Amino acid sequence: MEFETLYNFSYTLIKSFEETKDRNDLVENFSKALRLFFSVDELKIYLMDEYSFLLKDFTKPWENLVQNNKNIKIKQKFDNFLIQKSNFEIEENILYFPICQKNKTLGIVKLKLCDKIDPNNDFFKILPLVIAQISMLTATLKNKEIIKISSKFHQTVRNIAKITETQYEPDYILPIMGEMIDKFISEHLIYIFIKNKNKKEYKLIWPKNCSDTKIYEYLEEITPKSPTIIKQEGKMGIFPLIVDSKAYGAIVAYNHFDKITKKEIEYLEEIKQQAQITLSKAKSYVEVLEYATIDALTGYNNRHQFEKRLKETIASAKRQNQPLCCIMSDIDFFKKINDTYGHAVGDYVLKTVAKTIKKELREEDIASRYGGEEFIFLLPHTKLDEAIVVAERLRNQVEKKKINIEEYNIQNTKEISVTISIGVSEFNKNDKEAQMLYKKADNALYKAKEQGRNQVVVYN
To answer: In the annotation, is 373 catalytic?
Structure first.
């Protein structure tokens, strides 16, 4: 073998080790190194899963191999390496060799070439080096993934603990939890159920659909003292949510193919514990906030307080014969933000937009969160033309704002921008109901959205 070829191959392998970020990278970089010797058609790496005792495609570990002739042959080759401890097997243009660590066969490499394999190729002189290198690479990558999973787990628990800083309604909290858990336990279907107090049955609260009706039967087994319930031959885990000694709901993890591993059960049980604490806090907050006036997320008046301030402000405008205007705004395509980045980012966007708008208002202006992503503002002592200027300023400031979402670890996205649509109305003392003021603004807001969004429309 020429020294230069060996050097280039070794260098390429080392370089691939440095540049490998994930499993697909490893396969691609390894293929690149092998092309120094062969015309490579396809490279596949299969590892034995220590939990299911099944061979799995290294780049798609969440999928079970289909039981066809090709995959049965791969399993047979793997078994041969287990028994014979040989370095390789050749079948015309296909080369098989094992992945080993400490004399233990962990997987198999299938290398399909464009041409028939020459057993005298210099490659076979360094095959033990290749096996050692690829074995080290796969083991190192798996260890990195374990560390990353552990980090994601702790981040998930922290995020669930932080939910009640801004939210306290279970119908809002539970879907956020579902998103967080689903991102962490990505190889299983995750469902969140809540128990209907009156009907005493469970309803799905995240995601939107669950086609497996068996789950509902299993949920009926939950009692206030239920431990984790394992069903479907270990493929389904039901983690009861017990709040104040009562069955409140459940987290369900389900994989159609593989058993839930012992480690995944441990992770989910700890997540369940934090979820119970969060729900208990939320329940307490609901009782306290029943009489509150401030929206917990934005710091604005809540809807109940807005209705009260509306009557007071209109009464004052009538009494003093002063102008009064109303601005109603809505964040454009807010549902898409939630669907793309998750509810946690959606909450942060709401909070940031509210803060951005607040800076542009006077102290006497009354800011309220009307619901969801809608805000409403009462502008005392303000004429319509002045209110339009304010509305345009609000719209412009929100459009210019860059919202940093780095801490949420969204792939390839460090910041996002949003826009708002705005409707403006002016108080008319001939209106019979106080609500007419914001209903007219809402009507104008609807037209702003209908006409293309990110604009101000005045009620005529």
So the answer is: yes
